[in-house]
From TrEMBL, chain A:
N-terminal signal peptide: none
Protein name, entry field: LOB domain-containing protein
Protein source organism: Rubus argutus (Southern blackberry)
InterPro entries: LOB
Similarity section: Belongs to the LOB domain-containing protein family.
TrEMBL record, chain B:
All copies of domain LOB, residue ranges: 5-106
PROSITE patterns: LOB
A Pfam family matched in the record: LOB
The species this protein was found in: Rubus argutus (Southern blackberry)
Native organism taxonomy: Eukaryota, Viridiplantae, Streptophyta, Embryophyta, Tracheophyta
Family: Belongs to the LOB domain-containing protein family.
Record's protein name: LOB domain-containing protein
Amino acid sequence: MVNVRCATCKYLRRRCPSDCIFSPYFPSNNPQRFESVHRIYGASNVAKMLEQLPSSLRPQAAETLCYEAESRIQDPVYGCAAIIFQLQQQLHNTECELAKTRAEIAIIRSNGHGQESDIYSADEY
Amino acid sequence: MGGTSPCASCKLLRRRCAKDCIFAPYFPSDDPHKFAIVHKVFGASNVSKMLQELPIHQRGDAVSSLVYEANARVRDPVYGCVGAISFLQNQVSNLQMQLAVAQAEILCIQMQQEPVAATLPASQMLDHHQYQDHDQKSLLLSNSHDFNNIPQYFSSFGSSSNVIQDPLKRESLWT
């Protein structure tokens, strides 16, 4: 049975050992995934980051590293910080809108009570 | 007469800081931590390549965002910035739901305060209002969900550490 090298070891042109830290997260059928991560972080930094984590958390770490690397490639200036900034803005806008809407509700309710008394007083004239 | 102090990058890398050092404008010697953290996550040579590929006027912002991402990754080695994105997406969704409810409430109040039409029988009037109410509510709900163009990739992701409960109020995006 021939061992298939993972995308990392193929890219780095080396033998892929059975305990290769990259192989579960960078399969050979998706070379682009590793290339993105390598371009932004470098293979040795990725290996260090993964090694510091328990194996149960490594899939999520690899996934988020890929996501951030792709974001950085698409937006070399802001990376995924741009997304965070947009979300912060949206959060702020929605908070303002909600506060405004709640204030409107309070006004409508108080006007509703006011209008009833106006109607009665108008009838008196 | 003395030489200029090497920038934080060249100090850490223990090399001579050239006049045209690409790091010097963004990593002054009085803030060694800033470069240290970026070097730890991205590596100096990767940062140098990234900066070289950018026009000079964009490099400052690029460094700020790299520092931000590096800090996020060090604080949360599993989710990094994605943890913050996921958190914010949830916050926005919750607020949008609350907004939709509040807007529907306004409609309800306005419906209740509308003068009763004398010509319509009571049963028809009720159906008419309910129909209008439903239409307007669904219209409002669809409009109020100003869903961003950001894909909800990581809606189920949380933070691996308890530190990032409210990651972004603690620091501004740009230093």
